[in-house]
Write a structure and sequence with these properties.
By secondary structure, this protein is of the alpha+beta class. The chain has helices spanning about 5-15, 20-35, 80-105, 120-140, and strands at about 40, 50-55, 60-65, 110-115. It has one domain: Endonuclease, Chain A (3-Layer(aba) Sandwich), CATH 3.40.960.10. The N and C termini lie far apart (about 90 Å).
């Protein structure tokens, strides 16, 4: 089998879609049905996250197991041109770590959903866990802060529905 030139490889790999993939659409549809509102592919953020939930200060990456070198049953290094692919996966993983760190430093929570987690037997559990994690993040970031009343000796006002004596 002939080896491809870098230009041929680039043309071939550039045809692979990175937006609106099947796994991404599964996550987006779930989030929308659960009432989460989000933006897609915000280019102003490092790494152009797949899903951005500003209200939750959270970004979600829906990663393909092959392209990001996930340690699962779906990932396998191709048997041809192995050195190229191993270097490619190492660069992708290093870039992912760098982007996640930048987003974290900007104040975002970073969540990653792997393609293998969205296979039929695990899909519902994964999506429910995602919703639960987003609820936890919301509570963590939007918790009501206790406010002191006056000088500390004053009586706190009653609840609106509470009869006053």
């Amino acid at each position: 089998m002939d080896k491809m030139t870098p230009e041929q490889r680039h043309r071939c790999m550039s045809r692979i879609g990175s937006r609106n993939t099947r796994p991404e659409m599964i996550v987006r549809r779930w989030l929308w049905r659960q009432g989460f509102r989000y933006r897609v592919g915000v280019k102003s953020l490092p790494g152009t996250p797949d899903i951005v939930l500003r209200r939750y200060s959270t970004v979600i990456f829906v990663n393909g197991c092959f392209w990001h070198g996930h340690d699962c049953e779906k990932f396998r290094v191709p048997s041809t041109n192995t050195a190229f692919w191993e270097a490619k996966f190492a660069r992708n993983q290093a870039r992912d770590r760098r982007v996640y760190k930048q987003l974290h430093e900007m104040g975002y929570y970073v969540l990653v959903v792997w393609e293998c987690q969205l296979e039929a037997p695990r899909r519902l559990a994964t999506l429910q866990a995602l919703s639960t994690r987003l609820a936890e993040i919301y509570l963590d970031t939007h918790q009501a802060k206790p406010r002191p009343y006056g000088d500390g000796d004053a009586v706190a006002p009653g609840i609106a529905a509470e009869p006053q004596e």
